[in-house]
Each structure stands twice: as C-alpha cells, then as structure tokens.
Design brief:
2% strand, 71% helix, membrane, transmembrane, LAAT-1, 11 helices, globular, transmembrane helix, mainly alpha
C-alpha cells in the first residue's frame, strides 16, 4: 500500500504539470480512433451484409480489445491517475485519463462491429463451391458472440475479485491481460488475411478504415509509451503488433482493389457492358454484377450473401 501511495503522489505531480503537446496528440488520437471505425460501420450497413469478414477475426479482435481495456483499467499507473482526480483539477484529471478513454473508445467501436457482423451475417443459400472460401454458418456467428460475452464477463469478475480481495496482485493481472491482448492481437489478422486472400476481394472490410488505423496504431503506441513508460509495455505493445499485421492486410486489399478496377475498366471498353462473375449463378430475375471489390451484387433479387434482415425487406418490396 505504501508503494502505491508513493505512485499516486508521483502520478499526481505529473498530472499537475501536463504536456500540452502530448495532450493535443492524445485528443487527436481519441478522435482518430472514433472516426477510423465509422467507415467500417457504414460499409457493413450500406452493403447489407458482413460477407468477407472472418468470424475468427471478430472473435480475436473483440477478446483482445476486452483484455486491452481491462489491462489499462487495472494497471497501477492508471488506478493512480484515477485516484489523483480527487486532488487535481477537472482539466488535469481529464487530461490524465485520456489514455484510458482511447482504449475504451477502441473497444466500444470494435464491439459495434461485432454487433453489425451478427445482425448482417449472410443467412441465404450457400456460396458457390468454387469460390475457394470457407463457408461459415449462422451458428458460427452466434457462437462467436457468446464466447465474446462470456470472456468479457469472466475478465470483469476476476478483475473485481482481485481489486477487492488481492489488490497487490492487480499489477500481475494487468500484465497477464496485456500479454493475452498482445497474443490475441498478434493472431487476430491471420484468419482475416486468409479469408481475404481466399475471396480475392475485401468484401465488407473497409479499406478507408485500415488506411487510417495502420499508421494510427504506431502513433497511438508511441503516445501510450510516452504516457505509461517502459513498464506499460503490456498496454502499448499490442498496438505495434496490430499495426504491422493490419498493414499486411491493407496492402493485400489495395492490390485486389486495383485489380478489380482494371477489370471493370477493361469490361467497360469491351462491346458488351455486362459484367460476368465467374462461378456465380444469380437467381431467376436477378442481374449479376460486381461491387467495388469484385464481390457479387444482385439487383431485384436475393444473392447468396443476403442476410436475413435484407431478405425480408426484398420480399416485402416484391409483393404487388
């Protein structure tokens, strides 16, 4: 307890002399995190499907975000910053808690992706067998959501139990959470990279989101490292890992996008303006074309990727 009291005194002194450059950077990162996820939320809603997004990417990303958020909440330095809010000014308190707010916003935004993934999950007929992509079922999506919920409740329960009964172990628990977040984040993009590679297009995955987040991950890691120091490696290390892997996924997505644009341009120069989707057979009365990533889009009919929510909308629209 005495060591924690010394830590509080040290943190309070730092909060009373804030670096305005670091403060401005922290606010910029906070807004950037929020803005970076909006294209992904919009893309899933606009396409009406979460096709192309791996359920394992969602599972690993959500559990990694939960561990990362819990990590910074129970970290001794963060708890000391919260305790300092009793003695420092409101402005100094808000400035000191921006690091926690950043991780919290990131976790919230990814949780929204989980909800949209579940709501707009394709529940139509099976994909053509020659797509080369593994077909995931509605049961898989629901299982992912349940695992994320149980994992979150378990992390909350353990954190609260240690805070009440064994507060001296919270530093160790924070490092465990940080390691878990780093490991989960390290493999988070692997199933998505494989899914995108198998499909040959990014589907409902947002390239603008990755364009913002890839360099932002390194800036964010630097900001957290400056705030928490070397001892906070378990918090900022995860963002270095995710930045590297997301960069790989971004590069793949850009390559597929460039190929899709060249294919569309070549198709528009041909005598026939129709676009043929290899291996895709539209339903009767439907018109097959490709979206901006080369994925099938169907007008006046249901595609094999149409989620149940859109399916009911289409049926009501077709009723005379």
């Amino acid at each position: 307890m005495e060591a924690f009291s010394d830590l509080i005194s040290d943190r309070c002194s730092k909060l009373q002399a804030p670096s305005y450059l670091n403060l401005a950077l922290s606010i910029f990162i906070l807004l950037g995190i929020l803005i970076s996820y909006l294209p992904q939320h919009y893309r899933i809603i606009a396409r009406g499907t979460s096709e192309g997004i791996s359920p394992y990417f969602i599972l690993l990303g959500t559990t990694s975000g939960t561990c990362g958020f819990a990590n910074i909440l129970v970290l001794p330095a963060s708890r000391a910053d919260v305790a300092c809010c009793k003695t420092v000014s409101t402005f100094e308190c808000a400035a000191g808690l921006l690091g926690i707010a950043q991780v919290g916003v990131q976790w919230t935004c990814f949780t929204v992706i989980l909800l949209l993934f579940l709501v707009f999950f394709p529940r139509g007929p099976d994909l053509p067998q020659n797509t080369g992509a593994k077909q995931h079922t509605w049961r898989t999506a629901v299982t992912v959501a349940i695992i994320c919920l149980v994992h979150g409740l378990l992390v909350i329960w353990v954190s609260i139990a240690l805070m009440i009964t064994r507060p001296t172990y919270l530093g160790t628990w924070a490092n465990v959470l940080g390691i878990m977040a780093t490991v989960l984040a390290a493999i988070q993009y692997l199933p998505q990279i494989w899914t995108t590679w198998s499909l040959g297009h990014v589907g409902s995955l947002s390239i603008p989101m990755m364009l913002i987040q890839t360099p932002g991950s390194f800036v964010w890691a630097g900001s957290l490292a400056a705030r928490l120091g070397v001892e906070g490696w378990s918090t900022w290390g995860v963002y270095l890992v995710t930045g590297c892997l997301q960069g790989c996924l971004l590069g793949m997505g850009i390559v597929f996008e460039v190929k899709a644009r060249r294919t569309r341009e070549a198709g528009s120069d041909s005598p026939s303006n129709g676009t043929c989707v290899v291996g895709y057979l539209p339903s009767e009365g439907a018109t097959a074309e490709t979206d901006d990533e080369g994925g099938p889009v169907v007008e006046d009919g249901l595609s094999e990727n149409t989620p149940l929510l859109n399916g009911s909308r289409q049926k009501s629209k077709a009723t005379p």
